[in-house]
Amino acid sequence: MAGSGVFAEIKDGDGVFRYYSDGEWKASASGKSVPIINPTTRNTHFKVQACTQEEVNKIVESARAAQKLWAKTPLWKRAELLHRAAAVLKEHKAPIAECLVKEIAKPAKDAVTEVVRSGDLISYCAEEGVRILGEGKFLVSDSFPGNERTKYCLTSKIPLGVVLAIPPFNYPVNLAVSKIAPALIAGNSIVLKPPTQGAVAALHMVHCFHLAGFPRGLISCVTGKGSEIGDFLTMHPGVSCISFTGGDTGIAISKKAGMIPLQMELGGKDACIILEDADLDLGAANVVKGGFSYSGQRCTAVKVVLVMESVADELVEKVNAKVRKLTVGAPEDDCDITPVVTESSANFIEGLVMDAKQKGATFCQEYRREGNLIWPLLLDHVRPDMRIAWEEPFGPVLPVIRINSVEEGIHHCNASNFGLQGCVFTRDINKAILISDAMETGTVQINSAPARGPDHFPFQGLKDSGIGSQGITNSINMMTKIKSTVINLPTPSYTMG
């Protein structure tokens, strides 16, 4: 059971999960806790500490002190500790996966996959960090006009300081380690503020870093109410960098954060363009996988299908046949479609569905909801005046817009405020490349659904979908700054030699 055995110390006597500061598991002086609701039962399943601003101050202070020593730790030693953390994480995948099932209704099999993938990410990051950070650059002054060879410039990458990591509910372990591992290998300290739903899985993951033997104060995990510590953390003068994955909150953070590097991955309305010459079986399989995996609660889920009118009937028929085979129910039973994360999410999704109904969309399945569980729904004949054509449902509801030209599809994709990913299905590689060039998104997948991984690929969004680029290599580079040391030589004397 989650919290037992090796994880016993992360809970207090009342069953409330502690926060992690200065190498210890602590109860907050506030005496308050934050409930975590199980999306399936809609009852409180876990409780975490409601930390105070004073506790945040102490965490940042110890993170700053620990970072100074960590920056002096040899690179190979940092990598060694990361490899150890990866092994511990994989060893304890079962209890962590169980938390994901209870907190965010992630199907059991996918929950285990998330933890294993996170371990792999940490190991790869250790190796890549040694490669990237082990290299410097050497410049000589006479390569620029008007200069003699009187200066040698040595550049290297040095850490930023304290990195604040804020992952989202849907991948609270994987998207936490995608920030933690690059920060640590680069010589930074880390303050993790996990999402409320997913906080207990994140606390278990942090305990794996604790068991691996990282120095005290280097890694902290603070839980609590966003209203109490959210702005306080993101505007804290001791924070040197913010890496955030989530929704609209990211835009507010970026406006308040000041002059520090930001890495933001926000929402998406990933468009799937299907041309007349596409392999429709492949297209349908990817529409279902892209639109309905983890009940559509992914930034990179297919959020709108833009299909050429001439093949639309056939595609919709093929998609519907696959939707009928999706299993709906509890995450413990490994169902394809599980409850969405909160009741407010379910209500928002329902609002989009009712708006589409009122405006004349064709329902390919009957709309059905029980609590937070929404049955998969394909909406055909969606028009641009419907909210679901533009808004991100983050649920198992997928709109189909029929188009009469490729240009119309590209126009709809580019009219969105979002620009995370998109995909195009065609057998004509030249067309695919031209469409990819025209789509205003961070990534375009050709003949496959959008996806974040593999985790070392660059991952970025345009417009309201984010700032900066992620992926292991890009994150390491982003969490460092360039330091130059210039050696000034005596003026050359041409009489020598």
- Main sheet attributes: strand count, strand direction, barrel closure: 7 strands, mixed
| Number of strand elements | 26
Structural class label:
alpha/beta
Low-confidence stretches: none
The number of distinct helices, counting runs of at least 4 residues, comes to: 14
- Report helical residue fraction: 25-40%
Family: Belongs to the aldehyde dehydrogenase family.
Protein name: NADP-dependent glyceraldehyde-3-phosphate dehydrogenase
Catalytic activity: D-glyceraldehyde 3-phosphate + NADP(+) + H2O = (2R)-3-phosphoglycerate + NADPH + 2 H(+)
EC number: 1.2.1.9
Topology:
Elements: E1 19-21, E2 24-26, E3 33-37, E4 44-49, H1 53-71, H2 75-91, H3 93-104, H4 108-133, E5 137-140, E6 151-159, E7 162-166, H5 174-185, E8 189-192, H6 199-212, E9 219-221, H7 226-234, E10 241-245, H8 249-256, E11 262-265, E12 271-274, H9 280-292, E13 304-308, H10 309-323, H11 343-358, E14 362-363, E15 369-370, E16 373-374, E17 377-380, E18 397-403, H12 406-415, E19 418-419, E20 421-425, H13 429-438, E21 443-446, E22 459-460, E23 462-463, E24 466-467, E25 469-470, H14 472-478, E26 480-488
Parallel strand pairs: 7-8, 7-10, 8-9, 10-11, 12-13, 12-20, 13-18, 17-18, 20-21
Antiparallel strand pairs: 1-2, 3-4, 5-6, 6-26, 11-24, 14-17, 15-16, 19-23, 22-25
